[in-house]
Design a protein that fits this description.
This protein is of the alpha/beta class. 29% of the residues lie in helices and 23% in strands. Keywords: Methyltransferase, S-adenosyl-L-methionine, Transferase, tRNA processing.
């Protein structure tokens, strides 16, 4: 089982940084070697040394050897689907107020990056129920989780299937504290999420495009089951700080997705309308339907379901690539000495 601190050992994930700041992340295995054009480091030379030590390769080049943080781990693990970046995972934990002991529903699971953050936040006393439509993605996520923890967490349930059908069979009504929806069309799951949530519980949706954001917000409002939704996005800009040369980095992690949150109302509660000044920009249902074609504008029935991964720019992988990723995730877990799933 991979250690979280102390001397490095076989099965541990190690991040190697060369003098130019280039990163390589490896898993220590018996007989293993790290090769670069500048030399070789034997895995055996890393075993037993303290975490955050400096080692030299066969040509005398120095490397910093250090265990990766969770944020480092998720950025380097095998991926089937695009991951939720650490900046967004941190916001999800904060905005949804995920706490130790919470019962959390997550859909979909993707490659397991957000699942790992949620599992750490709820602790051993909490429960995470993850739902994923594609079995390949579920297998990759479970492989990554086993590699990170050394085994599949006992408080994590992964269900392959549609959330609308599987959630009522998995969680009784009014027993869930938080619902996290990372999916193409989260508005389709507003009702089932509301049924599962306790009064005051939080639903948070992660979507990639403005059209998805708008459609989700409208459905949350129209349902009458939630408070007025709040929307945001997070952008992170690093800084170069070296002596007197202090300036923003030339590159930044900008738009990855939008977050939209709302709280579950108590049954029978009528939310007061927001008071706002009269405006020429007031909109009608027909205006909304023209902007969001699946909401039923007259004569627009042929566009009743325009939401596909390709249309919203969501990258997809072939079945062949996914099978390769599944094998990589299982090998990843095996290299780290994880118990079989």
């Amino acid at each position: 089982m991979p250690a979280t601190s102390g001397p490095l050992g076989y099965g541990d994930r190690v991040k190697l940084t060369d003098p130019k700041g280039r990163l390589n992340t490896i898993t220590l295995v018996p007989g293993g070697e790290f090769h670069s054009h500048r030399g070789i480091i034997s895995h055996a030379d890393l075993v037993g040394i303290p975490d955050a030590s400096v080692v030299t390769n066969s040509n005398g080049e120095e490397y910093l050897a250090i265990r990766p943080l969770l944020s480092d781990f998720v950025m380097s693990m095998p991926r089937g689907a695009a991951i939720v970046y650490p900046k967004d995972a941190a916001q999800i934990l904060s905005l949804a107020d995920v706490f130790p002991g919470a019962r959390v529903v997550e859909a979909g699971v993707g490659s397991g990056a957000l699942s790992l953050h949620l599992l750490r936040a709820i602790g051993e006393s909490g429960e995470l129920f993850s739902f994923e439509r594609r079995e390949e993605f579920a297998d990759i996520a479970k492989g990554n989780a086993a590699a990170f923890a050394g085994r599949l967490p006992e408080n994590w349930t992964v269900t392959v299937g549609d959330l609308q059908e599987a959630l009522p069979e998995t969680c009784a009504a009014g027993t869930v504290d938080r619902v996290v929806l990372d999916m193409l069309a989260p508005w389709e799951c507003v009702d089932v999420a509301a049924e599962a949530l306790k009064p005051g519980g939080v639903v948070i949706c992660y979507v990639a495009t403005v059209t998805q954001l708008s459609r989700t917000a409208e459905e949350l409002q129209r349902s009458g089951l939630f408070t007025h939704p709040q929307s945001s996005e997070t952008m992170v800009r690093g800084w170069h700080v070296e002596g007197l040369a202090v300036r923003p980095d030339h590159r930044m992690v900008a738009h990855t997705g939008f977050l939209i949150t709302a709280r579950r109302l108590a049954p029978g509660t009528q939310l007061p309308d927001l008071k706002r000044r009269a405006s020429k920009t007031d909109f009608s249902d027909e205006d909304l339907a023209n902007w969001l074609p699946d909401m039923g504008a007259p004569g627009e029935s042929e566009r009743a379901n325009p939401w596909t991964p390709e249309r919203v720019g969501q990258p997809t992988k072939s079945d062949k690539v996914l099978r390769k990723k599944v094998r990589a995730a299982k090998q990843f877990a095996e290299d780290r000495g994880a118990e079989p799933a």
